[in-house]
User: Fold these one by one.
Assistant:
Number 1:
Amino acid sequence: MPNKEQRALLVLERLHARYPEPETHLIHQSPWELLVATVLAAQCTDERVNKVTPELFRRWPGPAELALAAQEELEVVVHSTGFFRNKAKNLIAAAKRVTDVFGGEVPQTMAELVTLPGLARKTANVVLWGGFGINEGMAVDTHVKRIAFRLGLTEASDPVQVERDLLPLFPEAEWGNVNHRMVWFGRHVCDARKPDCDRCDMLDICPQCGVGSVVCDESASAPERKAASRKKVSK
């Protein structure tokens, strides 16, 4: 079993081979549209968000327009994304701040982005990378947190600490792409409830922390880890 640093580079190599051109599934045409879509994507699927945003951007094309929106009207449009009242409230407040404080342009630093209502570090990382190509950190969602833990790259559960653990393990230029690739890998292979270990690119280097009866065994062979995974799934 390679050490953590070696493992991270192998993970990067294999994710790159599986997903050579990673990108967000959220449809957007500008950093502002990505910001709005990312806020709506909290506790919601990208597919659902992509059905909502065309009407939202038709009615309120940019932050200046959304800043003047009635919250009740925005709630109707974003209702299906869940937590619609809070999302509508935050989006209008963020639009007002972008318009009044940043001249209608989405700010390009982490320090400024997290001053916008509804934007925490994860969302800010998505906007910085997807909107401007800036790697100031790594967005840690449920997929990234789960996969990093299973691979033994972190023992943390707090997203901020997970990010701190991961950043030194990957080249800075790859931080944004690692997020996208892990999200896709989490959806396609490393599922939360039933990871498909039989066709996992990482099986021979994965200690499978928290999967099956192997709590976190870096000494187990690939066949042993695969057997443990099958035993877990069959229960």
Note: The mean pLDDT is 91.
Number 2:
Amino acid sequence: MPSDTPTPRALDGVLVLDLSRILAGPTATQLLGDLGATVIKIENPRTGGDDTRSWGPPYVQTIDGKSDLSAYFLSANRNKFSVSADLSTREGQDLVKQIASQAQIVIENYKPGGLKKYGLDYASLSALNPDLVYCSISGFGQTGPNRDQPGYDLMAQGFGGIMSITGDPEGAPMKVGVGIADVMCGMYATIGMLAALRHAEATGEGQQIDLSLVDSQMAWLINEGTNYLTSSSPPKRRGNGHPNIAPYNVFETSDGHVILAVGNDTQFQSFCTAFDRNDLKHDPKFKTNPLRLQNRSALETAITETFRARSTGEVISILKSRGVPCGPIHTIGQALSSPQAVARESVVNVPSSTATSGSVSVLGNPLKFSKTPVQYAKSPPRFGEDSKDIPALLSQHKSQHRSRKGEN
């Protein structure tokens, strides 16, 4: 017989007060909600809620025909409760303080110092709740000469250096196709909040996390950042090429393009054998990876000539038969409908009482837990739909939190 015991979640009993909007903060709190936390999203009634509710089309078609569920909003706001509160009023401030007094985590992305005038800054809320984890996200951080400048993903990508190495070598600097600075900032925020939560649960000591879009973007410059620090030579745009490996690029075929990602000398030899390119295999200019980097242009020209004579499918089949890393370049539709994506639940349909279809499609969480699986318990909410449920939510959380701490 099926068990009546609910499936445990990693963050059962954790209450998150979400004062963030747009993408970085909401990405982080969506992750926490996926892991079982109760996330209460505060939205401003004077603006109609989170800015991204109006960042459409496309929108979900709703029963009342007045959708505030843009696809952009759907991307970062499942597993949350939406509560309308005007922080400029005493009533709104009191409501937020009531929630914060029971919360384990608060996250906000106002300008540095912006919440102090409302009595909702870290110093004020930690006085009510000493073990509170308080994460502040901003464009440039709480300190430094740029602390008061606004922060958007595009500006962070420009300031932080990633655009200088993205795009065609002869073209303009290019941003990444999605708001990756925001998303990665949200990832760092999640890690930071969980680390601080562990410390708070062990010691009773809360703390503030100061995180910026620009800081996190510069942190994930990874090898290109350390290439510069090691050599003092500014990295260049290489399109799809790799700064440290060759051949590692996108190559034209007779009917499209294919990815070739040779990671070592053995794989290069296998590539040459697969296409009967003994001339490349025995050419001293291509014997090692450093030599192939020095002679990248000539090597890539030869590979392009070889691949152009065959279809994408044929090239991939030949390379895979020799164990050479390769792959197609999918459209988003092809990627999300692929057998691999289906097997891994990369797309999830979450029941929705407001959508005309009865559900909304969202991107799945990639984390696969063996004991505490990710939950898709609540579709992205309409603006303010849970405002009347605060007493019940806080009561339920209190019970869950006592259980989490092992109290009766």
Note: The radius of gyration is 25 Å.
Number 3:
Amino acid sequence: MKQLKTAQKQREILANNLNELLELKRKTQADVIRETGFAEATVRSWFNGEKYPRLDKIQALADYFNVPRSRITEEQIEGMLKVSQLVPIPIIGDIACGDPITAEENIQGYRDEVADTLPTGNLFYLHCKGDSMAPTIPNNAYVLIRQQPDVEDGEIAAVLVNGDTEATLKRVKRQNGLVMLLADNSKYAPIIITPDTPARILGKAVKVSFDL
């Protein structure tokens, strides 16, 4: 009976940790299923505390969430701040044509972030200049971008417009077959994407921070 209770407790701890990580990483169970390739029923049984994964699956989950295995398998003590690894995230300036976004020549500096709080994926920072996205993104804020080739309608993206080498932050809107880049500040006119004004999405804005 004691062994049964211990196994049940382990499943509960794992499920609690997995669901906390979903919230921290801004993910859903559907994202985990799609991006890891694990069976839907299996993933849902882990998150519901019904089953406990094998060691290789725990490691795969740890790699997916970018955390140590202990963050998934061990009970997290409420009210105690655990020391976590700091990750340097590059701040991107001008983007050389054809180079990877985070190529050394594109990097202006770094900002440290706590690994456990970061979303998954390839990440970089942009330093916001100007007030076109105010009040959502104030001037001089740092915006964390997850690299991806497209975003959902209405989301804020880092975009290269018409061959420019410096990314701009705009809200992507699709309407009647048109793609528009919208500023949150009404003083700025929309940018309509056409063959004469091409654009390339670099990634999705996932976090805003600034220094006092």
Note: The chain has a mean pLDDT of 85.
Number 4:
Amino acid sequence: MDLSYYLFMKHELSLIVVFLLLIIYDLFASDKAKKGYYPFACVVFLIHTVACFFFRDDAEAFHGMYVTGPAFYTIKNILNIGVFLIFLQANQWLSKPDAIVKRGEFFMLTVLTLFGMYLMISAGHFLLFYIGLETASLPIAALVAFNKAKRESAEAGAKYMFNAIFSSAVMIFGLSFLYGSAGTLYFTDIAANLYAGPLMIMAMIFTATGLFFKISLVPFHMWAPDTYQGAPTNVTLYLSTISKGAAVFALMMILYKVFPALSGTWHAILWILILVTITIGNLFALRQNNMKRFLAYSSVSQAGFIMLGLFSGTKLGMAATIFYIFVYIFSNLAAFGIVSVIEDRTGKLNMSDYNGLYKTNPKLTWAMTIAMFSLGGIPFTAGFFSKMFVFMAAMEDGSTASIVLVVLAFLNTIISLYYYLLVVKAMFINKNNNPIEKVKSDGYMKASLILSMAGILLIGIISCFYKYIDNISFGIF
């Protein structure tokens, strides 16, 4: 083994340095010095995020087990931006007496699970992919149960763990079929030996199903609402954006690289899953009053829209998928950030509590409105263009099945727009004699919300000047 291969893993090595700095600071700093742990962690991760934009290797390492290139480091950079904004939003929660003593654990577990996602994204071999998957999953279970004094958090952690174990077992079952049929776990070698037989089809279904759980596609979504509701809001945000984005990209790489010969089969499966996921997510979101469960079912529906880009199986679809993930992170960060502010200050989580919010908190109301508009796909927010681009990608081949799927997905956007506007209606129109009092957020939260709003609006404005997603694909293909 050539040790120079490690030099191609610059993103991973940089993140390990961040992890080591965080753990050394937490272990050896005095009690007085630990008061500066939070800004230190944010600054160190910001340096890592900025530095990663200069890491542009395009190579294979360890005989093809590790792969990097423009698409890979682009999605890693997007995840870094999302994690940094989540760190900014976590200060209010981590300043509470029941969480402040565990502040270091939050940052270290989050960085560790991000490291696992890096390995998933760059894997060219299913052994490395599975190691990354488990490295990402286990710390998340601890984060979900972070508020162990609260029954809901402990219950959410247990549910997530059981589902993670089950989805992992299903994937391992599929990988055993793959190895038995192809005699290898390298992506490229499996693709070269692939044949459209029942065993290979079964292997593909089981392998992909393990990731369907992570993405929370229907019917593999049942863990999401309870876990999202019980977990700390910042952890919920991490699950609904960063974890989902990494899993979508990993699934895209597996379908495109390993199973191109079975594209007809996985196209048919995705057609059904996309339609069912968008529809079920929308219908259940309509029934929710708790804001975290509302956004949980919203994220289920959004997962269906993200998968529209994968459905095409083309370069355009890959670019549209990555663009959608980028926009979705900003939109969801803004929505969950406002929910987090109000929950931390008032303990209120029901949509009815937001009635008349504009009277007392106009800035938060406008920020939530822009987030809802973006998630709903209203022109000319970034969310409008992300949906338009995945629709364009899904219809690229011009087949009847693609057109029907896009039409049905478009009709579903009307349903989603309705329930997103319910939140806007509650804040601006619904009367409330006792609205939520004036809520003050700290500087870190304000910075995160401002950056999220800037992302939504600026990406929307920039996208107006481009006719095709190929022009704004970040140069990744």
Note: Residues 3-472 form one domain.
